[in-house]
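Q: Please design a sequence for this.
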């Protein structure tokens, strides 16, 4: 199941838009819609699935604005790049790229906290290039071996 859309609120709208525009580019997301008057910005691939809008009140001590958002990454390399670029752009580490077998054996994710306290994740559930690498090399060898054996014994 994919994420359809969600929205977060930020106390520094322009900083958040700049941060997400840079970081989400690593996953192929781009700014698709800007609502005039700094009311909202929508990011996505073919349609906006992630929205940012200004919060109504300023951040105070103990103020909670955070949400958890997981973005689909096409590969583990994209997860790594997301994490690297997010940290370079001011995010705080909340879990470096790596396997998270507590969820399932192919779950590869990285977590960061943005400037507004949102927990942002990039996740790849199954990078087929990692999984079939050994099979791709083994299959031709087995086919040749079987062919040689058939010729020899039949």
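A: Design:
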């Amino acid at each position: 199941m994919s994420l359809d859309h969600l929205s977060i609120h930020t106390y520094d709208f322009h900083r958040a838009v700049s941060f997400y525009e840079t970081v989400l580019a690593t996953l192929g997301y781009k700014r698709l819609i800007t609502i005039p008057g700094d009311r909202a910005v929508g990011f996505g691939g073919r349609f906006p699935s992630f929205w940012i809008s200004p919060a109504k009140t300023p951040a105070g001590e103990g103020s909670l604005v955070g949400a958890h958002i997981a973005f689909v990454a096409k590969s583990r390399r994209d997860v790594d790049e997301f994490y690297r670029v997010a940290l370079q752009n001011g995010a705080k580490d909340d879990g470096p790229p790596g396997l998270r077998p507590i969820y399932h054996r192919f779950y590869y994710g990285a977590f960061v906290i943005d400037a507004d306290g949102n927990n942002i994740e990039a996740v790849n559930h199954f990078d087929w290039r990692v999984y079939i690498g050994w099979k791709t090399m083994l299959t031709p060898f087995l086919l040749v071996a079987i062919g040689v054996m058939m010729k020899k014994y039949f």
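Q: Thanks. Anything notable?
A: Residues 133-153 form the longest helix (21 residues). The longest strand covers residues 92-99.
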